[in-house]
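Journal club prep, notes for RB
We'll compare a predicted complex against what the paper describes. Inputs for the magnesium ion case:
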Amino acid sequence: MSDAMATANGDALLRLQNVESAYGPIKAIRGVSLQVRRGEIAAVLGSNGAGKTTILKTISGIIDPRKGSVEFKGQDITAHDPAAIVRRGLMHVPEGREVFPLLSVRDNLLMGAYTRADKDAVGRDIETVFGYFPILQERAAQEAGLLSGGQQQMLAISRALMAQPELILLDEPSLGLSPKLTKEIFEIVVRINRERGTTILLVEQNANMALNASDYGYVLENGRIVMEDSCERLREKDDIKEFYLGMKDEGVRGERRWKKKKTWR
Ligand SMILES: Nc1ncnc2c1ncn2[C@@H]1O[C@H](COP(=O)(O)OP(=O)(O)O)[C@@H](O)[C@H]1O
Ligand SMILES: [Mg+2]
């Protein structure tokens, strides 16, 4: 890539342009463009079926898009092999966590480090993730399948960290967790971002949590981005308040509301 192109891309670590992905005849995302700047937490908000998981799968190479491009660190990774994308420094924490249930917690963490050559540092990094999630240290020798849902989510995030990624894709970390656990996990995600400088793209139905934790947000509806802004500003928008945060604004009524219902369903 030329220097001029690098400049044109600004500080975008990840850039999607006009990405369209489908399952057979079902178009799941239709022309999604977004970028994630280095060092930030970006969020894609959307209800069930909006296409959030499809976006992440397309980025990490699990699904090949029909159209559009995915660029990571200024290089095209569209439809590249998922393992090659991991080696470039991009880790995907899938929906529903997917830990190895029969392996111990410690062995799950070691699996996250399989691409690394610096085996000495791996031991130190296990200590680091235990610092973020002390419960994992207590359960280090236990089978991961015996952990609670929240602990499995912690393990899935920790396993991703073990690869020392530059970018982590996080698919609905709040799914199935209590509000208290969700809050705890989001706090640690923010700490990881601030302390390690890891860039994070998360997708969530839980707009409240996501908007509080993130710097920049995209709203996805029926496979299309319908709004984007800083999370600070998104939190103030009436549409978001009504339909995602459940804080109905009494001042918004009548035709506008009907339109929004149609738009935001
Ligand atoms: N494996 C699949 N086969 C067919 N359709 C799918 C598949 N996975 C997802 N879809 C459809 O694609 C759309 C987007 O799904 P998804 O990306 O999982 O949404 P979200 O993660 O926002 O809930 C939905 O309409 C869903 O039914
Ligand atoms: Mg999903």
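Talking point for the session: The pocket of adenosine-5'-diphosphate (ligand 1) is lined by residues 23, 26, 28, 46, 48-54 (CB under 6 Å).
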